[in-house]
Automatic annotation (TrEMBL):
Pfam families: zf-CGNR. It comes from Nonomuraea helvata. It comes from the Bacteria. Residues 145-187 form the Zinc finger CGNR domain. This is CGNR zinc finger domain-containing protein.
Length: 189
């Protein structure tokens, strides 16, 4: 199994394969499927393809080939489906696995484990691998680690890798906004 409790602390260890595809799921959702981030509405990019390629480059994951407009449109649908998985919607995740032909297999030289058919196009391959990684995290009882930011006005998602799975916010800016808001509410009361 790719995720197992570490023998001493009980902290879950996510292997690099699963972690890599969960990171892709987070990137797709945060770039293509959120309407609010850090308390502000997110304007859809004028050129979603260029924005997505820039996000991949920022994370050091440039695509193996240039994305087309059709790829970007299909990835937006995948991102919406994956976003539902972060909210605990396993039915939509299961539909995504089936729709994109997720099937474990070995291919390449040297052989690499993948969850898409060897001939799958880029979008189906990414969707199948990312959805499988999310399913693996959920399937071993660690679904609570797939989180959405709890700050008001933020829909960004993340994988909580803290020891006790207690992370609540996507980053410090949202954490600071939430704490400041709670402080002001206490002062008014």
């Amino acid at each position: 199994m790719t995720i197992e409790a570490w023998r001493i602390t009980g902290q879950s260890q996510i292997d690099s394969y699963v972690g890599r595809w969960v990171e892709l799921a987070v990137l797709l959702v945060n770039e293509l499927s959120v309407a609010w981030a850090h308390g502000r509405p997110v304007e859809p990019p004028a050129d979603p393809r260029a924005a997505l390629e820039e996000a991949f480059t920022r994370q050091g994951r440039p695509p193996s080939r240039a994305l087309t407009g059709a790829d970007t449109d299909r990835l937006a649908h995948v991102a919406a489906d994956l976003h539902a998985a972060f909210a605990g919607d396993v039915a939509t995740l299961n539909e995504t696995l089936v729709r994109h032909g997720a099937v474990p297999n070995l291919h390449g030289d040297p052989s690499v484990l993948a969850f898409h058919a060897p001939g799958a196009d880029l979008v189906d391959a990414w969707a199948a691998d990312a959805a499988t990684a999310l399913a693996m995290v959920i399937g071993v009882g660690q679904g609570r680690r797939l989180r959405s930011c709890e700050a008001e006005g933020c829909e960004l998602v993340f994988m909580d890798v803290t020891r006790n799975a207690s992370r609540r916010f996507c980053g410090l800016s949202c954490q600071n906004r939430a704490k400041a808001s709670a402080y002001r509410a206490r002062r008014r009361a």
